Structures are given as structure tokens and as C-alpha cells.
TrEMBL record:
Keywords: Electron transport, Membrane, Mitochondrion, NAD, Respiratory chain, Translocase, Transmembrane, Transmembrane helix, Transport, Ubiquinone
Native source species: Watasenia scintillans (Japanese firefly squid)
Name of protein: NADH-ubiquinone oxidoreductase chain 3
Membrane topology value: Multi-pass membrane protein
Cell compartment(s), UniProt: Membrane; Mitochondrion membrane
GO cellular component: mitochondrial membrane; NADH dehydrogenase complex
Protein purpose: Core subunit of the mitochondrial membrane respiratory chain NADH dehydrogenase (Complex I) which catalyzes electron transfer from NADH through the respiratory chain, using ubiquinone as an electron acceptor. Essential for the catalytic activity of complex I.
Length: 117
């Protein structure tokens, strides 16, 4: 019990020293307005609050979310494909990928993904 208390005291002391060192050598200026202002969606919200944000930012976020969900859904399928003796897991994953690629090509041909060309 005493050794645990000694370890906790040493860890607390090291954390306090690191915090103290970080605060003393900090070069950040708290008076700089630009650093303290929030920056979201590619524009400064304090100037025009109703200004529309860039469609490029929106499309990039949507594409990121779609492919992020795709990876989450496809990761368990690899284990299912390896352990299954039927063709259904491979067929369903191929169908899922084809639907996603058709959607991506449709968006690309509609012109909303001009920034990717």
C-alpha cells in the first residue's frame, strides 16, 4: 500500500512539474484576437453570420462521412467473408461498393464535384 502511495505521489509531482514548465515557457499570446476567434466552415463567423459557406467544404465533408461509414460497414465483412462458406457476404459487399461508386460518379458527372477534376 505504501509503494502505491509513493508511486502516486511521484506521478502527481511529475505532472505538476510538467504543467509548471509548460506554463512558464508558453509563447502563446492571449491578447491576439485572431487566434481567439472561432474558425468554422472556411469563413469568419464574426463578420457575416448569415453568409453561405462554401459548397466545396460541404461536399468534402459529405464524401468523407460516406466513405467513413463505408469503411465501418466493410471492416466486419472481411471476417465474415473469410469464415462463411456461402457467396452472400462477398456479393453484398460488392453490391454496396457498386452503389457507392455509382453515387460518386453521378455526383462527379452532375458537376458538383468540379473541384475534384
Amino acid at each position: 500500500m505504501v509503494t502505491i502511495m509513493i508511486y502516486l505521489f511521484i506521478l502527481l509531482l511529475v505532472n505538476f512539474l510538467l504543467l509548471l514548465i509548460g506554463l512558464t515557457i508558453n509563447k502563446r499570446s492571449y491578447t491576439d484576437r485572431e487566434k481567439n476567434s472561432p474558425f468554422e466552415c472556411g469563413f469568419d463567423p464574426s463578420v457575416h453570420t448569415r453568409a453561405p459557406f462554401s459548397m466545396r467544404f460541404f461536399l468534402l465533408a459529405v464524401i468523407f462521412l460516406i466513405f467513413d461509414v463505408e469503411i465501418i460497414l466493410l471492416m466486419p465483412l472481411t471476417m465474415n467473408i473469410m469464415t462463411s462458406n456461402t457467396h452472400w457476404p462477398m456479393t453484398s459487399s460488392a453490391l454496396f461498393l457498386i452503389i457507392l461508386l455509382m453515387g460518386l460518379f453521378h455526383e462527379w458527372n452532375q458537376g458538383s464535384l468540379d473541384w475534384m477534376k
